[in-house]
Amino acid sequence: MADGTFGQEKVEGWMRQLVTVFNRGFWDGYYLGQKLGEWSTSYGSAATKRKIYLGKVTNYYAKPGVAEIKLETGDLSTGDELLITGPSTGIVELTVKELRDALEKDSAKVMKGELCAVKTDGIVRRSDKVFKWVDASSLKNE
């Protein structure tokens, strides 16, 4: 605030991010003394994004900033959004721009059971969990 960077534009950006993960929608009634039932307008989760477990990080190469991932479920394609989480890592969000298979060849898609390599924006660690970050609406159509 003191440096003049806080403003309505930042607040609106933060609100757009919060809406993607709040399971009942974002509601300011907590601070205004409203009752719980007043804000629960939908059954289940109202989050607009969901995470789908894919596998674990098996190795991290620091110099090139590349994570080796073992896909335990599902598939991974170029353009997919990922969340990599771990107790020391926290959360690393990324979009897969380049995907390499176990033979270190460029690949558009890697399937369950295969190893792949993905460039990361932050440091990740062995055994960190890897999730695909997808729109909730795409899951309802399946």
Radius of gyration: 18 Å
Strand content: 35-45%
User: What would the principal axes of the Cα set say about the shape?
Assistant: globular
Instruction: Write down the secondary-structure element order.
Output: HHEEEEEEEEEH
- Secondary-structure-derived class: alpha+beta
Q: Taking all residues together, what is the mean pLDDT?
A: 83
N→C terminal distance: 45 Å
Strand order of the largest sheet: 5-4-9-1-2-8-6
User: What's the CATH topology label of the largest domain?
Assistant: Elongation Factor Tu (Ef-tu), domain 3
For the secondary structure, the number of strands is: 9
Biggest β-sheet: count, sense, barrel? Answer: 7 strands, antiparallel
Q: TL;DR of this structure?
A:
With 142 residues, the chain is of the alpha+beta class. The chain has three helices and nine strands; from the N terminus they run ααβββββββββα.
Structure, described:
By secondary structure, this protein is an alpha+beta fold. The chain has 2 domains: 1-47, no CATH class; 49-140, Beta Barrel (Elongation Factor Tu (Ef-tu), domain 3). Helix content is 15%, strand content 35%. The chain has helices at residues 8-19, 29-32, 136-140; strands spanning 49-61, 66-71, 76-77, 81-86, 90-95, 99-101, 109-110, 115-119, 129-135. It has a 7-stranded antiparallel beta sheet with strand order 5-4-9-1-2-8-6. A two-stranded antiparallel sheet has the order 3-7. The chain is globular. The termini are far apart. The mean pLDDT is 83.
